[in-house]
Amino acid sequence: MNINKFVMPEVIFGHGSRDQVGESCLRLGAKKVLIVSDRGVMNEGWLENVIENCKKAGLLFATFYDITTNPKDFEVEKGKEQYIAHECDAVIGVGGGSAIDTAKAIAILVTNGGSIHDYEGVDKINEPLPPMVMIATTAGSGSEVSQFSVIVDSKNKKKMTIVSKSLVPDIAIVDPQTLTTKSPQLTASTGLDVLTHAIEAYVSIAATPLTDVQAKNAIQLVAEHLRPSVASKINMESKYHMAMASLQAGLAFSNAILGAVHAMSHAIGGRFPLLHGEVNAVLLPHVMEFNFLAVPKKFSTIAELCGESVQSLSNIEAGKKAIDYIKQLSLDIGAPQRLSEMGLTDEGISEMSQVALEDACMITNPRDIKIEDVIQLYRQAL
Amino acid sequence: MNINKFVMPEVIFGHGSRDQVGESCLRLGAKKVLIVSDRGVMNEGWLENVIENCKKAGLLFATFYDITTNPKDFEVEKGKEQYIAHECDAVIGVGGGSAIDTAKAIAILVTNGGSIHDYEGVDKINEPLPPMVMIATTAGSGSEVSQFSVIVDSKNKKKMTIVSKSLVPDIAIVDPQTLTTKSPQLTASTGLDVLTHAIEAYVSIAATPLTDVQAKNAIQLVAEHLRPSVASKINMESKYHMAMASLQAGLAFSNAILGAVHAMSHAIGGRFPLLHGEVNAVLLPHVMEFNFLAVPKKFSTIAELCGESVQSLSNIEAGKKAIDYIKQLSLDIGAPQRLSEMGLTDEGISEMSQVALEDACMITNPRDIKIEDVIQLYRQAL
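ok -> structure tokens follow
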């Protein structure tokens, strides 16, 4: 019964809610916004959509979409220069984790100065950030509501996790319609990322009753709606529920932090240009098997939330059903099953294990973990 | 599938969390705070506690606790004068709904000017409010997280409901330890107020998936922990869960609004110095019986959340169990069962019915309601 803290942005959720972006920026006092996005989002037309809406609201704007999957320190630096050159006074992020995390990192630099490396870790941001409005288009990262930004340190080839209440955006806009342009592959990997957020937050040693309600609801929604969402681009009901699952999982992990899956996935993402969600999807069942010992009762609840019948089963038996369920889900939606499918080999595993062990997300993993454990988990997932 | 909005303050929750009040004010840039409370809270020692903590943090302060149950417009006016005379720059509320609603109303006047009557209704506040930190000590009102303030119009003898996102405090502190000094009577009435918030928010026509998770969890917590909490002043587990229930019900109704119970209760509270929670407790089962027609499936879920076995029952049968459950709960904890026990008579019912019909909370009631219905409901509850 420790003291729990919970923060979240104002949320605007629903079909067509992206059309509130201009008005939202005005409400925060913005006059000229930097719109941060990526080429994928631009090609799907959502960036233009946002630009049109900002124009209609009478906002001036500049754009920056020169970013890659797993955004890099030097990309953040470029974005900052863009913000300064155009004398912007607010930031909009449009996209998945890459665009939104970059938008947050730019916001840090424009009022706090220095290099993005200075802010790695917890609570390193001192000056208030400019107004931030984030539009989530992937139902995956949860970054639109979280106090996290993850940026690659390109020299040291590792992901830096930046955690601060200041990184919670002012307004998060979640519009399920933006999910209709995602490929089945991206729907699957981002959906499994949502599940990973929800499960890691739920079993985190920093979980609280406030994060549990969000995490549990997100698990239930993913179990019910991820398969239909992968199956059809136009099944709006499933898009709606997956967007909600992503939002709730984001609220849960933002406040309960994550665990070994994310620590290990960050170490991979710092070196290889892989989809974060796919890497998580491969690691999740292995880490769950490792963590099972620490939280059997919670695993039993996860099985129940996934719709498994657990009556007359012990927590141990029921908990194992949760792991089986998630393996099957991942198979059903065609997610990769092994790291080797993505081109990883045994090379570099010991360095990555060291990096993973030092990741901020490892602190809240429910089972104590040593370097040998991390190495073994990577090997199991190869 | 409309567009849903959800706002909440930063929350600090847990035993001893009241000791973060000074630091919280400093974080918001406060130098001199007006601490708004009431005599009950002062006599229980919590006000002194807060003052000590503010002193320790190096804050200057003034106090204002000249308020009554169902706080009045002229009390708000006095508080405003106190704030200005002492050149304060932030507001702390310590107490239940009365203290916190007064603190919010003072905050409105000091930056927006005019009279508190000018702000009745939705979205009438234009200027930003000073920093607000609220400490909830009753596990009842939920005002520490809500966008509501309810103030009595003393001339017209009615409660004015003021609704605005600006009324969401910056930081809400919820410390279950402050519940240990409450009488069983106050524990019962505030606990039934929590249940009323949760149920009205859940069946509200403005309910969303984001408010539903909070409302449902709150109903479950009240069903499990209100009886033990009334039974023992020192049962800390029950205090903890009731404080959480209050917080979650507050988040639910702040964003989904309420219904006929609150509309009718406000009309009573504007005329008679009665405990808001007790009036709600009497009205709740009558309004539930009236509303049943509109949302039988939700009523069935309420029964399930209360721990009733609903397997093999129809929604209609299960929903009726919810109403029976709540009547029994109210009896078990010794809450008043009739308005006449509190001194009400048939006199004034038709005027009150008109006032109730015009209350902002009536708009979201799930069943259409006419003046004759309101009159009949009041009579049934007499």
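Chain A has two domains: 10-178, 182-381.
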